[in-house]
Amino acid sequence: MSSRFAPRPTRTSVRGGETAVPVGVPRQTTAHLNRTWRPPHPLDLGLTLGPLRRGPADPTFRTTPDGSVWRVSRTPQGPGTLRVALRAGTVEAEAWGPGAAWFLDQLPVLLGELDDPEPFEPRHRLVAATARRRPGLRLTRTSLVLESLIPSILEQKVTTDEAYRAWRLLVRKFGEPAPGPTPAQARMHVMPEPRTWSLIPSWEWHKAGVDNKRAATILRAVARASRLEEAAAMEPLKAQARLELIPGIGPWTSAETVQRSNGAPDAVTTGDLHLPGIIGYALADNRDADDAEMLRLLTPYEGQRHRASRLILLSGRTPPRRHPRMPKGNIAPL
Known about the structure:
Blueprint: E1 13-14, E2 17-18, E3 33-37, H1 45-49, E4 61-63, E5 69-75, E6 78-87, E7 90-96, H2 100-105, H3 107-110, H4 125-133, H5 146-154, H6 160-174, E8 176-177, E9 189-190, H7 194-198, H8 202-207, H9 212-223, H10 225-229, H11 236-243, H12 251-261, H13 275-284, H14 291-297, H15 305-315
Antiparallel strand pairs: 1-2, 3-7, 4-5, 5-6, 6-7, 8-9
Helix pairs in contact: 4-15, 5-9, 5-12, 11-12, 13-14
């Protein structure tokens, strides 16, 4: 086994004392594998991995006061827990569970090694200023499809709060506890495997606030899980086309998925309730922009439209609210 994956205890002797363990990690637990990696580019962990977080109580994603990012996934080799921290320009990672080696092998890809921002040329002062302020933004690539597809389906046509609640309840109830140590009281869980999703009773979908249409779409997706996971190795447009073969998965859902699973720099999200107005307001002072106008405004960024959209969202220039938030739904009994 490579020395970069050498087991490391959670406490070691340094100058006659002990190193501090990460906040919330039980001292009696021993790390499984670890790796260090020095990225050849500026890296901001929060900006890069932030899109993987589905709400502040996401059971598969946590941040801790010491600056670490914790992530739990069902990898091709089984469940895994990953802790990543950035210290003096070096990424320090630890992983636990059957998926630990896969997690550490994929670490550079997850943190944007394959992302190439060089072709991106800002065409608006706002975009250029944000790019200068956010040099550590990289587009993550998880190489996992279902873990981004299922929460994206849950987010269809409902408020983000409703979708986050559904994801949290379903993962905690039907997933499994994350392997290894996790932040204290975080209750981190691995997403259910495809067969488990398929066996969730109808009343449990209802209790989580998920209507028949979204539940049925998830069931169709997990029935073709292996075929969909293959999309992570495809070109983004081909990956989206494969996802959209599943009834209930359209351009909005496929774009939201491949942005994360494939690190797709041009997968712009269409069909969103708020994004066209934000892009329109930021680039043309047009808060009433629709998808067609948004795509027109993003034309100079062809090939990098998702990156441009991320920078615009990070700029903080959003239209003042003039309508109430989208009302929460009240689904019919399943």
